[in-house]
Structures are given as structure tokens and as C-alpha cells.
Amino acid sequence: HPHNPEGTEWAIGSFEDINSVEFGTFGTDILGHSVGTVLNDSLIPYNRPMLMHIIDDDLYYEVYFHMWTQGGAGGGFSYTRVLESNIFNAISISPQSGTVSAGSSSDIDIIFDASGLFGGEYYGEIIVASNDPDYPEVAVPVHLSVTSSSDIWVDPDTLDFGEVYVNYDGSVNYGATLELTLGNDGTDVLNVSSISIDNTAFMVSQNFATIDYDEEIILDVVYTTTGVGMDSGAITIVSDDPNEGTVTIPVYANALEPPVIAV
């Protein structure tokens, strides 16, 4: 809906203004009811950005609209969005203060930790403040290039159907279904190229998947058999996770004939 895309709040400004602007609904609060007029007359010609806050993920973007049309027959728009640079949360400095004797120098450790950052280029400055009368503050540019990666997780790590009746009610075979959850804790899309199982008594509801970051899917694992006895197998999940490219989930079931009452 043009008055406010679901799960977002907006403001006019750039990252530099993020602490001074007031966020609200896209149309009603920020751009008014004449969204196209404000965008086409005041923002797009001057390449002025808006700020978009994705509330659930707590992510901020600069959004540069390039085109906006609307009318009774429909419309369209195009834009570029830039993720907020969170480089300051990725840097630690040690020591953060100290004294340097005249004519000497001192080393400072700058440690970068890209954990949790999405792929992209991050820029910032380290400000060194001192009692130097000529240069009381020195700005040191900082640049961090981050490559995204996926991170698979699976729950549970073993599937045990326990005891399952077969050949129930004469000719009808009885089976059971369990759920297996696949998720992605990384900062890039997880591409699962293969989901297979090595025992035909078990079946998985899908054999590939694409999982966005911070998302999950649920698979149904079905057990059916006509014989009695123990069945076991392994579900093999192959993905582009750089650290766990192949995940194996053991599967167990015990097929029993149902008890029969005699009167």
C-alpha cells in the first residue's frame, strides 16, 4: 500500500540525519497524500534520499527513488537502496587512550569483526583526539569489505519415529510423519541443492530449497513400509554453506504388526 509498505517506517533524509528526523508512515505522515508529486518535484530531481526502517529486522536503508508513476490504469517505480554502514559496531580499539612521550610513538590495535554484517562496503572514520595545538583531532579513514555467507541449521539433529504399526486393518498400511526444520542464520541466501534419503521406506517432502537469511522452512518426512522390523536411514542435505556443505540427519523407525484381540 503506498501509504505505508508493511513492516516499515520512513523519513526524508540520509544516514547523517538518522538521529534528528522523525519516522512515520510513507504516505500519510512523511509524503502526504500526494506521494507522486512530492517524489517527482522535490526528491527525484535532486537525488534526495529517504530513510527506510525495516522494523522487525531493525535495519535502516537510504532509498533513492529514480521514477514514480501512478494513475487509474496502474503505475510503477524504481529505486536504489543502500544498507546503513554499521562499521562502528565491527571495530574495537585498544588502548582507547594513553600518553605518548615526546619524540616517541605508540602502537594501537584496531580489530575488525564482521560477524553479523551483511555483504557490502563499509566506511567510517576513527577520530584521534589529543592535546596537539595544531591538530587536536585527526580523522583516519576506515574501510571494511564484507562478503556475505549462509549458515545452515537443522532441527532436530535426529529423527526417531519410534514404534509404528504396519499392515493395520488388514490390507491398509500405516505410516507416520515427522517434521524437519531447515534454517539460515547467515547473512546471505542459503541454496540447498539436494535433500535425499538412502532408504525408500522414508520420503522427504522436497528435494531442494532456497532459504533467505533469518528464515526457515519445514519439511515433512514420511515413513511407510509393508514389512516389520527396524528401519534406518540418513537424510543428506547439500547446500552452499561454506562451513557445513553437507549435513546428515540419522532416521530410525521400528515397524510392528498391531496387536490383534481374539474373543
Give a brief rundown of this model.
By secondary structure, the protein is mainly beta.
Structural description of this entry:
The chain has 263 residues and is mostly beta strands. It has 3 domains: 8-83, no CATH class; 87-99 and 106-145, no CATH class; 152-256, Immunoglobulin-like, CATH 2.60.40.10. It contains 2 helices and 17 strands. The protein has helices at residues 26-31, 35-43; strands spanning 8-12, 50-54, 59-69, 76-83, 91-94, 109-112, 120-129, 137-146, 152-155, 159-165, 176-184, 190-197, 202-204, 209-211, 216-223, 229-239, 246-256. Strands 10-17-16-12-14 form a 5-stranded mixed β-sheet, with no helix packed on it. It is flat. The N and C termini lie far apart (68 Å). The model has no long low-confidence stretch (mean pLDDT 84).
Structural class label: mainly beta
The protein's oligomeric status is single chain
Helix content range: under 10%
What's the level 1 CATH class of the largest domain? Answer: Mainly Beta
Question: What is the chain-wise order of helices and strands?
Answer: EHHEEEEEEEEEEEEEEEE
Strands ordered across the widest β-sheet: 10-17-16-12-14
- Uncertain spans, ≥5 residues at pLDDT below 50? none
The CA-CA distance between the termini, in Å, is: 68 Å
The mean pLDDT is 84
| Strands, total number | 17
